[in-house]
Amino acid sequence: MESPEAPALVLTQISKSYFGNQVLKKVDLEVAAGEIHGLVGENGAGKSTLMNILFGMPVIRETGGFDGTIRIGGRAVSPQSPSEAMDHGVGMVHQEFMLLPGFTVTENIKLNRERTRPNLASRLLEPLARVQSASLRTLDQGAMREDARRAIARTGISLDEGALVGALPVGHMQFVEIAREVDREQARLLVFDEPTAVLTENEAADLLRTMRALAAQGIAILFITHRLDEVLEVADNVTVLRDGEVVARFRRDEADAARLAEAMIGRPLGESSSRRGLAVGARGPGKAVTTSASAHLELEDLHVAMPGEEVHGVTLSVRPGEILGIGGLAGQGKIGIANGVMGIYPASGNVRLRGEPLALGRPETALRHGLAFVSEDRRGVGLLLDEAIERNISATACQVQGRFLRGRGPLALYNRTEARQHAQAMVSRLDVRCRGVDQPVRRLSGGNQQKVCLARAFTLEPELLFVSEPTRGIDVGAKQLVLDLLVEANRERGMTIVLTSSELAELRSVCDRIVIVDAGKVSGILPPDAPDVEFGLLMGGSRRG
After folding, report:
1. How far apart are CA 403 and CA 418, in angstroms?
2. Of 265, 293, 311, which marks where a domain is finished?
3. 331's torsion region: left (phi>0), alpha (psi -120 to 50) or beta?
4. Please, which residues have CB within 8 angstroms of residue 309's CB and are 6 or more apart in sequence?
5. Are 18 and 56 members of one domain?
6. Lower Cβ count inside 10 Å, N or C end of the chain?
7. Rounded to an integer, what distance in angstroms lies between the CA atom of residue 166 and that of residue 307?
8. Does the pTM of the predicted model rise above 0.70?
9. What total of structural domains would you count in the chain?
């Protein structure tokens, strides 16, 4: 029996094991109606498994179920499928959109809950069949558009309910997902899973305002994110998971970013991994950047036709042995530079590698000349999601360099033993949290997927490595480890690195120089210790010679 005064969600003593590995250990969590509750933790802390249990994902049932109890609105439930969870009033707003781009906003919001009206066929046949059949009825487009407008209004954002979803900006797609969930009459609890990972700062601010508006309407919100500043801005309470256990709970007035981060990683923030003995920061003792006049990579009048990140005439030199940062606001072209040089998107202009021309538009040519790329789109471009970790690490080296093969030419065979040994060594070196190198990459957390991307790039032993948004969507502990690995590759193996990031603090912590891109062009180049105001002016459109 549901009670209007009961908490929207109560999880009690939730435990879960996968193949003998316990990933959740007696987790307790409570979210009141109208509360925004933050859930934070490193990748691999158990957040995804907890949400899979709450949302009735098949993987939980297929791997032996779980222990503990779930109460929604005071009623004990055990969802066996996402549809059952939705029937109980649970909605999920995913980091990766679950939308149909060829459908309109209305059609996406009303999918599987279409409104219908009788027609001649239904009036004639339904009495004979003694059942009301939606398949015989006509879609009530007017009623569905009205429902969609009402749901969109609850988000506080202005959207055209008749627009095709595929033509919308990424930020607006997120609000379509939210509108779809609040359109359900019984919506009681919304889970936001890394909702701002792909949004610009302005879009993220709009989303946080929408979360507050929904909470004011009595909807409980469970907010999962790695962006601690956003949690602190909107959450009423915060629960911290580490290694499958609740290690801390904070009220809004108790929490700050340092306390949350330290609870997440289990050590004072800034303390680096003793396994490598490296602190984040490329500058300092032991860092040698050549001042030779010869550039490692030269870009002259580079143009890249990457939608949303177009480049309009970038001229730039990369020095041998440096970590060059590329920053700027979203949509200004910083992401397009690496994608153009590596041949992912059409590009024109002159590119010279150690003084020799490099043909554009051919990814394999770039790879064969000692370049490598860790894409910002790790799931779409960087990984073979349904393949094992081992295959992901070895695939490009097999194709481009002929490594991990027995023999040569079309009769060459894959050397599974050598590839497996190499993958195991990389998993150990990069601290990839997995069940083994046979595990599909799709089953890894975001941070561990990113480490596999790095492992594949390092396997190529490149002279120059492009890395775009290496810490997007991963937790604070994994961020530091990824940056440490890049610094290590630069310091100890002399690898030249071009690091593109939306986080200026990240660039300032590891880079020797920082290029700011605005409107598809270089606005200026600054040392990492330049005043904040200079970075701000360059990002705002000022030019520096």
Report:
1. 9
2. 265
3. left
4. 331, 332, 333, 334, 335, 336, 339
5. yes
6. C
7. 13
8. no
9. 2
Determine the 3-state secondary structure of 314 from DSSP. Answer: strand
Q: Considering the chain, what is the average pLDDT of its residues?
A: 85
Interatomic CA distance for residues 177 and 105, integer angstroms: 9
236: helix, strand or coil = coil
User: What DSSP line would sit under 80-99, residue for residue?
Assistant: SSHHHHHHTTEEEE-SS---
Q: Is the pLDDT of residue 288 over 80?
A: no
**Boundaries of domain holding 523:** 271-370+462-545
Choose the weakest-confidence range: 251-265, 453-467, 472-486. 472-486
- Clarify whether residues 471 and 527 are in a common domain: yes
Give dist(CA 178, CA 91) in Å, integer: 9
Residue 512's pLDDT band (boundaries 50, 70, 90)? very high
Condensed to tens digits (0 to 9), the pLDDT of residues 353-372 reads 999 999 999 999 999 999 99
Could you give the 3-state DSSP secondary structure of residue 148?
A: helix
Whether residue 308 sits in one domain with residue 248: no
The model's pLDDT over 395-432, given as tens digits with 9 standing for 90+, comes to 999 988 889 998 877 778 889 999 999 999 999 988 88
The dihedrals phi and psi of 395, each to the nearest 5 degrees, come to -60, -50
**pLDDT at residue 345 tops 50:** yes
> Is there a domain that residue 117 lies in?
no
Contact present, 511 and 333 (Cβ < 8 Å):
no
Dihedral angle over CA of 244, 246, 252, 255, nearest 10: -80
Asked if the model's pLDDT at residue 386 lies above 60, the reply is yes
